[in-house]
Design a protein that fits this description.
By secondary structure, the chain is mainly beta. 14% of the residues lie in helices and 36% in strands. The chain is rod-shaped, with a radius of gyration of 52 Å.
Length: 322
């Protein structure tokens, strides 16, 4: 008796689609006639689709008719056998498992750069200049932004000029040490106008800016022997201690324009345009007199700036009176 033959690879396809499940109702029975094949019989029974689509139904036919196929193979079925077919299959769609939701990336919060409150610019004029900032020290060349607490030190032929935010200018001479301790300049807030500077040693030429035009106590230049204030001024200050100071021992200052004043326990002592003041030691009375020749030349060492005979006499007399 002839058998219905199918390609072997068709059974392999059944493995691929066998994951679909069907609800089967064994209510149709069909008797095989000679020359018929199982796929044509299914289509005659109302099952639609190609071999791949109908392979799960074919497998259900085998399971409903375990004794009709030799070795339960679709290849071996004989005419005259009665086969029970399932009703039209109801496909139970197996939804794929949802992919796991990825963990959200942690939000990267941009950390803003710290705001650096520069107060001005320094420009190296000659030779070697060192900057001490916080716990570090570096040798300068060219220009650098200035911060509060910056300390500048020049060697015997060095020089540096600072221009701060209020347009004040500070020219530091050789063998000098100068620092900007406090500088507050907020044009929108008048009470924030203040400056506290420190000349440790050497020579400093100053053209005051807008801070110096405020209250008398808004600006201070501190040395080892004196505290100076200004009222819109162009002046030069020197600080020298020990040997080599000549006639310029202690703190000395001379005024080109405006007025400076020296703080004392008895009140401020004013120094006018064209005048010179000397405070030899801390607590000593300020001596006001004429400006020694060469005082404004920052490149001259204190020992090279000489008082005239008359200036020396005048200073001695004023010192004796005080």
């Amino acid at each position: 008796m002839p058998s219905i033959k199918f390609k072997r690879k068709a059974l392999a396809l059944g493995v691929i689609v066998a994951f679909n499940s069907f609800v089967v109702h064994a209510s149709q029975e069909y008797q095989i006639k000679p020359g018929e094949h199982i796929l044509g019989i299914l289509r005659s029974a109302g099952f639609e689709g190609d071999y791949k689509t109908l392979l799960p139904v074919l497998e259900q036919v085998v399971s409903l008719n375990p004794d009709r196929f030799s070795r339960k193979s679709l290849d071996l079925v004989y005419p005259g056998e009665a086969l029970v077919f399932p009703d039209s299959p109801i496909v139970e769609v197996v939804e794929p498992e949802p992919e796991p939701t990825p963990e959200p990336e942690p939000e990267v919060i941009a950390v803003p750069e710290p705001v650096v409150d520069y107060i001005g610019v320094a420009n190296v004029l000659a030779d070697k200049v060192k900057l001490r900032r916080e716990q570090t020290q570096q040798e300068l060349s060219g220009k650098i932004d200035v911060l509060e607490k910056d300390n500048f030190t020049t060697n015997e032929s060095g020089g540096i000029e600072l221009t701060l935010a209020d347009e004040s200018q500070y020219k530091v001479g050789p063998s000098s040490s100068f620092s900007v301790e406090i500088f507050q300049y907020k044009p929108s807030l008048m009470e924030k106008f203040s400056a506290k500077l420190n000349l440790i040693a050497g020579a400093l030429s100053i053209k005051s800016g807008k801070v110096g035009k405020g209250r008398d106590d808004s600006y201070q230049l501190i040395t080892s022997t004196a505290t100076l204030g200004i009222r819109g001024t162009d002046y030069t200050v020197r600080v020298c201690e020990g040997s080599g100071c000549g006639d310029l021992v202690g703190t000395t200052a001379a005024v080109k324009d405006g007025t400076i004043f020296v703080a004392t326990p008895d009140g401020p002592v004013d120094v006018q345009v064209g005048e010179f003041v000397q405070i030899e030691t801390k607590g000593a009375a300020p001596i006001v007199g004429d400006i020694p020749d060469g005082f404004f030349d920052l490149n001259l060492s204190p020992g090279d700036v000489k008082k005239t005979w008359w200036q020396k006499v005048t200073s001695y007399v004023k010192s004796a009176i005080n």
